[in-house]
Design brief:
Layout: H1 3-13, E1 18-23, H2 48-60, E2 63-69, H3 79-88, E3 92-97, H4 105-114, E4 118-122, H5 128-135, H6 140-151, E5 157-163, H7 172-182, E6 186-190, H8 211-227, H9 236-247, E7 262-265, E8 270-272, E9 282-283, H10 303-309, H11 318-331
Amino acid sequence: MTSKQSTIVRNLLTGNLRFAEFAVTNSCIAKCSFCDIWKQRPKVFADREKSLQTIDNLADMGVSHITLTGGEPLLHPGIVDFVQRCTDRRVHCAVLDAAPSLITDKKLAALEQAGADLISISFDTDDPEELAASRQIPNIMRDMETTVANIRRTRIKSMASILIWNGNHDRMERMFEKAQDMGFDLTSINYPTFSKSEIYPLGGDGISLSRDLVVESLESVIELKKSGKFKIVNSVTSMRNIIDYLRDPDGVRYPCFGGDRVLFVDWFFDVRPCMQLPDVLGNALTMTKADLRKTPCNACNMSWYRDFSTFFCGVKSIPAYWEMLGIVGDAF
């Protein structure tokens, strides 16, 4: 067991286990049809020293996994320092990426040296032309294939992050097969979500799917996961919970613990329950566990927060924990 895994276990046993996303910039190269963050002005890059302090404070609150996101976090000049601070604090760290060309040989070597555990790359479709149009980045499939091959030569794991949208909802198996053929170690599914958040606006025609179509897509992913052919990070427990939410929001078994067990920190160091809700719980530089919101939420189906929240529902969470143990050696 690594020191980071030990931190997860210790925080779990003491009841302090938490997860956080830290958006370090709103700058992004990609111009996705289902995300408007690239339109934001002015462009903001979180202060380096305050970001390091934020990571320290999150670790002190029991945060055992931090996803560094944006915008495009690899555009931040301090990204390697942020990964290193996570490693110093024995916090598992993932770096999101929408533009694989940013993962140069030099940057990849620095991330490996700093102890990055996972690089998650947005992967919308198995069609190269459609992918380039979706992200408005020429030759992105070629860049992605090269980048994943390079990551495989390091200790870092790679994950294909697949959003269910108009361009792929009816061909999940082809998506997973393509990701596997490219050499991704893991895959994850993101559930289409609309948000009018001033910080993280999401939506657009690209994800204008009916709830029935999203349910059909998720049911196909569940069957693919149960087949054992692919390493899918999302638990069956959580995906079924999302299906229940889409069919009847009041009928879910697992609420979201955004604001308590899962957190979002923006580039202004405001701590929020998630990307979507306007509530600000406090400032990441000064707040403590006493400032966290304890009330479970059921306002949306945002994947990252709903997936992790299934671990915090008492006895009901045993199936979710069991599934997590199946991937802990790969993802953690």
